[in-house]
Amino acid sequence: MKGIQIFKRSWDNLSGYLPVILMLIFAMFTYWLLQVTPKAIKKESVLPLAHVEDYFMRGFSVTTYEPNGEVKSHILGRYARHFADTDTTEIEGPRVYSQSHSNFSGVQRTQGTAKTATTNADASLIELRGDVELIKQDWSGTKVAPTFLSIKSQYLKINSEIEKIYTNLPVQIDRGLEKITADSMQYNNIDRRMQLVGNVKVTFAKK
Pick from 5, 10, 25, 128: most CB atoms within 10 A? Predict the structure, then answer.
């Protein structure tokens, strides 16, 4: 009888710690389960878009306009392919036309041809390659005949937003009977400043 009372008293004391013991066992079992469970497989990262054409056009033309409705630029070509990864368009046999207003001589019109061209989404940045010829026409709006400036190179980069023309390849510039050649050129149409670098030669018209 006495032994039963001692066992009962010991069991009562132990039962007070039973919830803590059970929680400890459950925590240890959970930790073990996490260790033996295979790690979740990471989701495959999204692959970048490949540089392949997603659509093409034949015998196309694209025109952009100024807010007042005037034509800003016009591009024609035999064939064009668009690349989604860079949002650019490559054009075969391009013909480019643009128009702007200058504080120096009023309306300026520019026409260009090349073997190929690359443009961004809004055609504000155009790269011409292969037998490039760009003819700039300044028209003052008076009865005076417009003046023409011809730029020839194998590469020209035209930024219509900041009105700059750039090439890092040999270039020839003709204005009437005057001819200038150089290894590279940068032309700013806003302030009418041209920078020529490398082996610059100038041929003046004879009087």
Answer: 128
Sign of the torsion angle spanned by Cα atoms 172, 175, 179, 181 = negative
Q: How far apart are CA 135 and CA 152, in angstroms?
A: 9
Domain of residue 91 covers: 53-203
User: Residue 25: inside a domain, yes or no?
Assistant: no
Higher pLDDT pick, 65 / 10: 65
Confidence of residue 18 (pLDDT cuts 50, 70, 90): low
Structure tokens at 171: 């270039």
CA distance 94 to 145: 28
Query: Rounded to whole angstroms, how far apart are CA atoms 123 and 89?
Result: 9
CATH number of the domain that 171 lies in? 2.60.450.10
Nearest partner of 97 among 64, 143, 48, judged by Cα? 64
Residue 42 token pair: 């990471």
What is the SS3 assignment for 96?
strand
Q: How far is CA 28 from CA 12, 61, 62, in A?
A: 25, 72, 70
CA atoms within 13 A on the CB side of 155: 10
Would 13 be classed as within a structural domain? no
